[in-house]
């Protein structure tokens, strides 16, 4: 059941305008209620996103040139604001004000449901700070009942909408199960059918300090022992909820572990100097995207590899469709390491993130290794492609273009003059419900004359 706008309280004006959320049916988090002033420099990774009107969203520094925030803060990816690092009190006007190079919302972010509410912000310059918050990789963490801390710059009293705190505030809350969260109900509506596996919920028992837990995009962390936060682990991103200081409604966060593979692979691909915690040297998704200014890819001619994805550590540049979640990854299957299983019942979709390409390339080649199981002659595997200049699809028919029960490679080419970016979507167009397509590798190449 969707929530009536009449019941929403204290909607973040900037988040609404940046993310086109004026008609949103949920309260995007804007403030800390009932918390305490944080010790200065305790959360050295805390980031304020601000424009000419001031602070509007929070974030966390996860690499020297990368901030993690919420997609609803800038769902269009415009990036017309600064990331302020190292500022405890806004009145002091200290810290670094860094301009945004690229804002990249999660490719499966859903503005209607606020699912996959993640955004990576890449900065034009590196922050001076070398304190980065680590991202949680464990789906079993945090445990139910665990104490977690959220922070932000916001109103300390819900009765004063414009009375923002100058200093960074923090509040401790406790994790609850998604089932308990989904059962939340009160005078202002229900969370029924709105809590997905990409979300995490937390509250303070009895309310009072857990209604609007922090600025949108701010971090939810498990605190470590280091006094500047270097041992903290971020488990969530402040996302949405109903009301402020309510005993009925917990806060809802984007769950880091659910999309860690996308976060890691994107940071490893785009950051100038990813932290060692991302272990980019051993990332096995084999992202080898080239730089458009590299003369070896623009002047030598012939086919150049843009991306090779082998799914050995996750979905890599691809993500399973958030609404169906039926494209399932296995560590190994049918003699291959790293395999995606797509069901033939029409619900499986595998979509890539946006892939930058060199302007000199005017033709592209996509190849993939596949294994078909129990497909009928009416079933198809299709690839939808979209560049900045063209779009189309390529489909292969089972038992005609590919056989069953053996690995084989399928390939197609398409022209795209002056393309700057590329996206792919793999889908199974089938009438049967018992078949599967296994994918173990996707390779994308570009042709430059």
Give a structural overview:
The chain is mainly beta. It has 2 domains: 31-286, Thrombin, subunit H; 302-448, Jelly Rolls, CATH 2.60.120.260. The chain has 4 helices and 29 strands. The strands form 5 sheets. It has a 6-stranded antiparallel barrel.
Oligomer: single chain
β-sheet strand percentage = 35-45%
Residue ranges: pLDDT <50 for 5 or more in a row?
1-25, 284-300, 321-325
Q: Any idea what the shape is?
A: globular
**Share of helix, binned:** under 10%
CATH level-two architecture of the largest domain:
Beta Barrel
SSE class? mainly beta
Which CATH class of the largest domain?
Mainly Beta
Radius of gyration: 23 Å
Arithmetic mean of pLDDT: 80
Order of the strands making up the biggest sheet: 10-11-14-17-16-15
Signal peptide: 1-18
Organism: Skeletonema marinoi
Protein name: Peptidase S1 domain-containing protein
Keywords: Disulfide bond, Hydrolase, Protease, Serine protease, Signal, Virulence
Compact description:
By secondary structure, the chain is mainly β.
Layout of helices and strands:
Blueprint: H1 13-19, E1 27-28, E2 36-37, E3 46-51, E4 54-63, E5 66-69, E6 82-85, E7 96-105, E8 119-123, E9 134-135, E10 147-152, E11 169-176, H2 178-182, E12 185-186, E13 189-190, E14 199-203, E15 219-222, E16 233-241, E17 251-255, H3 260-270, H4 295-298, E18 302-309, E19 318-320, E20 328-333, E21 336-343, E22 349-352, E23 355-356, E24 361-373, E25 380-387, E26 391-397, E27 407-415, E28 421-429, E29 436-448
Parallel strand pairs: 9-16
Antiparallel strand pairs: 1-16, 2-11, 3-4, 3-6, 4-5, 5-8, 6-7, 7-8, 10-11, 10-15, 11-14, 12-13, 14-17, 15-16, 16-17, 18-29, 19-22, 20-21, 21-29, 22-28, 23-28, 24-27, 24-29, 25-26, 25-28
